[in-house]
Amino acid sequence: MSRHGPFSFSRWWAMVLKEFLQLKRDRITFGMVVGIPLVQLALFGYAINTDPKHMPTVVLAADHSEFTRSFLAALEQSDYFRIVGEAPDEATARAALARGEAVFVLNVPAHFTRDLLRGERPALLVEADATDPVATGTALGAVEQIARSVARKDAVGATGYLAPDEAPFAVHVHRLYNPEGSSRNNIVPGLMGVILTLMMVLMTGLAMTRERERGTMENLLAMPVRPLEVMAGKIVPYVAIGLLQVTLILLVAVFVFRVPFLGSLAALYLAALLFVAANLTVGIMLSSLAKNQLQAMQMTVFYFMPNLLLSGFMFPFQGMPGWAQAIGNVLPLTYFNRLVRAIFLKGTPGWDLWPNVWPLMLFTAVVMAIAVKFYRKTLD
Fold first, then answer.
1. Mean per-residue pLDDT, 274-284
2. Dihedral angle of Cα 183, 185, 188, 194, to the nearest 10 degrees
3. For the segment 215-229, what is each residue's pLDDT rounded down to a tens digit?
4. Rounded Cα–Cα distance for residues 286 and 288 (Å)
5. In this structure, how many other beta carbons lie within 10 angstroms of the beta carbon of residue 245?
6. Domains and CATH numbers, the chain
7. Are 276 and 243 in contact (CB under 8 A)?
8. Kind and range of the H or E element at 176?
9. Which of 117, 228, 259, 288 has a 20 to 30 A CA-CA distance from 34?
10. What phi-psi label fits residue 155: left (phi over 0), alpha (psi between -120 and 50 degrees) or beta?
11. CA distance 335 to 347
12. Are strands 104-108 and 55-61 parallel, antiparallel or unpaired?
């Protein structure tokens, strides 16, 4: 017979109360228990949309006519397309696609109206940035139906006999950068940012809190070093680890999954270096707030979830409501996803990457300043 006697409900209840008391004292853990489910429900319930609308569209029109205007109006009324401007030439339109300023380019050829009235069934060309096939698939599928709708509404004269069965003009669709519409070409490069976010923030956060738990932080207090010097010294080894992971993911993406790589290796590694630095500063900031390794892990998960869901990795960024896009525009993974996909699939040159580079630089500088401030409080 056990020396503690039979099972005691009073002792069991005392242990239950003890655990609840510990949870109550650990405010961060208690906050995560409530916060993480609420955040997930809000993101999945309100922010996630796989059918994006009002996607920016540039018009390249060599022929201005009633049919052209009617077709453009029908595109905007469909809610899938938002006309943001007219390009003077093909190079300008392609540059807008490469920089991500437009998702679609509508090309209206010369003599479109003349050929239409002759019954020759001319063709409109819609070029799409197909790096994210989920974002553009539904909209492209609606283009032919919109053409038929315009034909039924506006067919007159020589084109009237075509209206019941087919549009008096054709619509050709070119999927640029990902002509096969392969989701692998979109997801695999994006995984680079997801893996780096999780690993860099978690590893740095655990490293700092581990020192505090083991008491080695006192050794740092006794050393004549500045907080910035301590953090910079701790970051360097993890930068090397991050770049090693970038190399591994790159090799697997190209040689195993056959994802095309059209850009510059130097641009990829520079973008990755900046992104790794941004995540390491986040990890140091979180570790300065966390009291132990468990809290550091919980904070990492809380930071990781919005990055995963609101960066455009899992769901189209264009499909999210305005408030969700505003949050996504603060997260570094949003910009790194755009950078890595532009380098992999578009071969975008260096200067065209700048609109997604400077936000990463700004994020790193701001978070580093906050991390230094919190770290000084930790030392005090």
1. 92
2. -80
3. 776 676 666 767 667
4. 5
5. 17
6. 55-176 (3.40.1710.10), 183-379 (no CATH)
7. yes
8. strand 170-176
9. 288
10. beta
11. 16
12. parallel
Distance CA 255, CA 276 (A): 24
d(CA 328, CA 317): 8
Look at residues 123, 168, 128, 133 and name the one whose alpha carbon lies nearest to residue 149: 168
Query: What does pTM read for this prediction?
Result: 0.83
Comparing 203-207, 255-259, 303-307, the range with the smallest average pLDDT is 203-207
Q: Per residue in 103-130, pLDDT tens?
A: 999 998 888 878 877 778 888 889 999 8
Measured in whole angstroms, the distance separating CA 51 from the mean position of its chain's CA atoms is: 16
Q: Calculate ∠ Cα 70-75-77, nearest 5°.
A: 90
Cα dihedral value 60, 64, 69, 75, nearest 10: -20
pLDDT at 379 over 70: no
Residue with tokens 């809380």: 302
Q: Which amino acid is at 335?
A: Y
* Dihedral angle over CA of 350, 354, 356, 361, nearest 10: 110
Q: Name the token pair of 270.
A: 């520079």
